[in-house]
User: Fold this.
Amino acid sequence: MKKALLIVAALATTSTAAAAGKLEIFSWWSGDEGPALNALLKLYRQKYPGVNVVNATVAGGAGTNAKAVLKTRMLGGDPPDSFQVHAGQELIGTWVVANRMEDLTSLYKSEGWLSKFPKDLIPLLSSKGGIWSVPVDVHRSNVMWYVPANLKKWGVTPPKTIDELLKTCQTLKAKGLAAPISVGDSSFPQPHMWESIALGTLGTQGWNDLWSGKLKFTDPRAVQVWTNFGKVMDCTNKDSSGLTWQQAIDRVAKGQSAFNIMGDWAAGYMATTLKLKPGTGFGWAPAPGTAGTFLFLSDSFGLPKGAKDRTEAVNWLKLLGSKQAQDVFNPLKGSIAARTDSDISKYNAYSQSAAKDWRTNKIAGSLIHGVVAPETFMSGFGGIVAQFVQNRDANAAAQATQALADQSGIGK
Ligand code: GAL
Assistant:
């Protein structure tokens, strides 16, 4: 008996010792955006109680600040153990081409993930014969948010086309609403709205043609995107340059604006942080002109070469890819699970409708959130949007965008 107890004690010590260590997770999910990540880290700590988990966040929507810090760390030989990166060109066209990531194909095989993630998503994580990150969510970019009771009060309904949006804007202005559409600053909320306006103007094929190089940014149809974007900007708040995406959503929640176009992390913010009920506290519709298309993006985590706590990082990735973790994270985040076997009953009404659209809509990739263009394009594009907002010169913006696309190898 005594001997058995000793053995148990010895085993317990060994497993604690094996689990001890450190894990540094790098992302931009801080503050208001933190609850879903925190729930995931809690799960990790429960499974690996000896590990000191460092939650290294750099605030700033869409990772505008975090990506710059990450670059310095990666190039300086000080990578975090695992970091947030979007599926698509942000991963493949940036860190994989630079040979900075470990191939995770064997993990995909041992965890049985090849049949658990969507067939169309894995290619966006793959190149050069490897698979380079683990997706934790699927977010939708092209969503328009509103408060149903406020629209009723103002006597308007969610506009279905860009023309309708502009008409509704005039109706609301005539009723005294100075900024019918709210928007945040040019770091990402304005480019984010641009991509929905572009999809709504060009249609799905036109949007895809931009990224395959079939449609030039200088084509009159693509110039029209800027013209429409300018008209929509005329419906927005004058103080946008000082607002985060959350503050722009607050304007809708408080009835100061009628609409905001933002990805469905806004649903996470409204349901989890503001405690609003989907359907009554807030409503949603596809961004005008984009019904039937799910403009998607996916947050994933990878394993950089030279990670200091490799074992702990691999355990983190295993957890991330599990059904349990995905169904803990996504209901709080506003996204749906990347895994196809997730338990949809754990999700709210918004996410259930997003899950249905993900299954039935046409799928296209987000620009601002890493799917269709590499970082070189993205970092320059923010500047073009900011400049357009100042000078409203659609032709100049179209030419600058085409020059940037040529430089970044888009359509090559
Ligand atoms: C996106 C990211 C989302 C959310 C959003 C706002 O790029 O994929 O998960 O964090 O930025 O910060």
Remarks:
- Residues 28-29, 33, 61-63, 139, 263, 265, 297, 299, 369 surround beta-D-galactopyranose (CB under 6 Å).
- DSSP finds 16 helices and 14 strands in the chain.
- The domain at 143-289+373-408 is CATH 3.40.190.10 (D-Maltodextrin-Binding Protein; domain 2).
- The two ends are 72 Å apart (CA to CA).
